[in-house]
Design a protein that fits this description.
Elements: H1 2-13, E1 23-27, H2 28-41, E2 47-55, E3 58-66, H3 74-93, E4 100-106, H4 115-125, E5 132-136, H5 138-141, E6 148-153, H6 155-163, H7 168-174, E7 182-185, E8 187-190, H8 193-202, H9 210-214, H10 221-275, H11 300-335
Parallel strand pairs: 1-3, 1-8, 4-5
Antiparallel strand pairs: 2-3, 2-4, 5-6, 6-7
Amino acid sequence: MAAQSRSFLQVAATEEVAPPLRVVQIEGLVILKIIKHCQEFSPALVTGQLLGLDVGSVLEVTNCFPFPIREEDEEIEAEGANYQLEMMRCLREVNVDNNTVGWYQSTLFGSFQTVELIETFMNYQENIRRCVCIVYDPSRSNQGVLALKALKLSDSFMDLYKNNNFTGEKLRDKNLSWVDIFEEIPIKVSNSALISAFMTELETDTPVRQCDYDRLQLSTNPFLERNMEFLIECMDDLSMEQQKFQFYYRNLSRQQAQQQAWLQKRRTENMSRKAAGEEPLPEEDPSNPIFKPLPEPSRLESFLVTNQVSNYCNQINGVAGQSFSRLYLMKALHED
């Protein structure tokens, strides 16, 4: 008994180290709920709560429910919070998983890398050890692809964000670049044996679904045009961020030149005072404005914009490649 007691105390005193998150396992019904909610309100952006269990290296998502449309009014925001609590209470009463494991949100052409998303992650991290954000893009799914991603923030980025220090020196010390902000977690879809058997009965001998027809659409101009428009806007934003850094380094160079000139003048003056037998003056003057350090602009916004640019380029590249394949296929069919 004493040995068991000591073993329990040792286990209780030992800090449990959580294994890294490897897979997000989502039930098929949850995915259907997310798609239905996002498609109904598209192109408006919507969000919802993810419920499930954190089991080892797998985050199981077993249920979800939508949030009301957000408004700026504080009273409406308070009603939204009460709605979430009431939903959690109702789910608990019917013995349904009510543990929060993250949230889902819709996006438009993959434009989800924002400061608001990072702040939401940090708010969730205060109460939940591990959480994910499921991002669904209805516009991308219309091309015959299930545009569903599971994202989390990297640990190194969260440490920097907590300290609000995104200077070049800190980023070099952490070896952090724009690709290290978000981590995409593989998604595994799971269904119960009963649902799998039912879906098997519904299948015909030659199943052809709507998504199969969507993949054969030859017109991709609207999708590519919108991506190009967003890409141009991001390039403008990136150019503005670069101008901020150019302005900072220009002021820094000017300040260093002023410091050198002042220091040279002070050394010359000290040589004269030393020749006259007087005490030399200090070579630094904290009260002088030219010795006040200039605040370096944060690189967070430029990192997020670069992420957006990369995302739009990948989407354009993927859609254009698939479009060429379909055009060559149709050409071969017409020739036959």
